[in-house]
Amino acid sequence: MWKSFTPPGWLWQPGCRIYFRQPGCLFLLVFSGVEYYHIYISNEAEHGKTVEEGYGVIQVKVKVILNPVAGRGRALKAKPQILKALLAYNAELHLEETKGDYHATEIARQAVRAGFDLIVVAGGDGTINQVVNGLGEERIPIGIIGCGTGNDFARALGMPADPVAAVHRVMTGETQLVDLCRVNQRYFVSSVGIGFDGEVAFHANRGFRWVRGKTAYLCSIFKTLFSYRAQRIKLTVDGLVMEFNSLLVAVTNSPTYGGGYKINPEALINDGLFDVCAVQYMSRPEIIACLPLLLPGWHRSLKKVRMAKGRSITVESAEPFYYQLDGEVLTDKSLRFTMLPRALAVKGARVEPLSGLEVAEEKPARAKEA
Ligand SMILES: [Mg+2]
């Protein structure tokens, strides 16, 4: 088991600790204010084994991208546990903390160039989104440790909520291919929400950081109730055109969004299809009455709700609209969605064993009224 102590004065820095298994064998220096973590093997023997026998030659280069502000600091709090769990494996670790918008994208891009074998992301859907946008269509496996506000992508992958359990799953699990989604020039992994959704995400990101998950989303919904206005939207799903005064349009590849709300309960992340939930404009009392149905996914039975599946989707409006992309808020007047089936490799994911491409070809997409 790992033990730790504060190092002597000549080595001490704020937050510095040394972790070791046995004195003089394998130890880890941890500086909370320094980006990089290194493993040193200082002795050739532990428990009577040589380095090669005990640990093997270091083979796997792992980049850990940790967002210290994800989930109100949840990732930062879990950092020592995550590192200790990773040290149990035969890997060369290189941890880097993000320092602002799109930094994770740049780190991921550099990790591709540097030849890392695995990128472990400790953060929320927004951090994963940035990493995926840095990878592009490179098939370097990523591992997900869900430490964010919503964690809907981690949920869709069947990853454990506990960070240590998630590390063990990433390091011991098999690599699965899931769909990668693109809207205009940006990749996403979980969801895009247009209209009401976009404003809800806007308020969730700006004003409700003291609460997490569904509660944060619920607070944002009530705030948005008093600011949202109906917008004329033209939605096209595989050639089928729907034009209506919109409350929201959610195009997702994961069944949940907003921290667990089952907006598209039938969505699969490896079927090669987008799931679409389109809702016509509702009054405030209607929204309040229908809101409880969203949590278990019962909103599909409402008259003003249309559910659809498709591979090629466009959303257009005469006026710019807010939309959220894996939690990040953006504005545009036209969105074109493209599906890249099984283009994202995720280590440790537990997904239904089906071929998304075959399913998409056998069952042509069609819109339906639930
Ligand atoms: Mg899908």
Description:
- It is a single chain.
- The chain has helices spanning 51-54, 74-86, 103-114, 125-135, 152-156, 163-172, 196-207, 213-225, 284-294, 356-362; strands at residues 3-5, 17-20, 26-30, 38-41, 45-46, 49-50, 60-66, 91-97, 118-123, 142-146, 175-183, 186-188, 191-195, 231-237, 240-252, 274-280, 305-310, 312-325, 328-347, 367-368.
- With 370 residues, the chain is α+β, with helices and mostly antiparallel strands.
- The protein has 2 domains: 3-179, Probable inorganic polyphosphate/atp-NAD kinase, domain 1 (Rossmann fold), CATH 3.40.50.10330; 188-341, Tumour Suppressor Smad4 (Sandwich), CATH 2.60.200.40.
- The strands form 4 sheets. Strands 11, 12, 13, 14, 15, 16, 17, 18, 19 and 20 form a 10-stranded antiparallel beta sheet that branches. A 4-stranded antiparallel beta sheet has the order 1-2-3-4, with no helix packed on it.
- Helix 2 crosses helix 6 and helix 7 packs across helix 8.
Summary keywords:
370 residues; alpha+beta; Rossmann fold; Tumour Suppressor Smad4; 2 domains; 10-stranded antiparallel beta sheet; 10 helices; 26% helix; disordered C terminus; binds magnesium ion
Query: Regarding CATH, which class of the largest domain?
Result: Alpha Beta
What level of helicity do the residues show? 25-40%
- The average pLDDT is 81
Query: How many H/I helices?
Result: 10
Return the structural class. alpha+beta
Q: How many strands, which pairing sense, and closed or not: the largest β-sheet?
A: 10 strands, antiparallel
Spans of at least 5 consecutive residues with low confidence: 9-16, 22-27, 31-58, 356-370
Shape: globular
Question: Which ions, cofactors or small ligands are bound in this entry?
Answer: magnesium ion
Task: Tell me the CATH architecture of the largest domain.
Answer: 3-Layer(aba) Sandwich
- Write the H/E string, N to C: EEEEEEHEHEHEHEHHEEEHHEEEHEEEHE
Count of individual beta strands: 20
Give the terminus-to-terminus CA distance. 54 Å
CATH H-tier superfamily of the largest domain: Probable inorganic polyphosphate/atp-NAD kinase, domain 1
Q: How many domains is the backbone divided into? A: 2
Strand proportion: 35-45%
Radius of gyration: 22 Å
Could you name the CATH topology of the largest domain? Rossmann fold
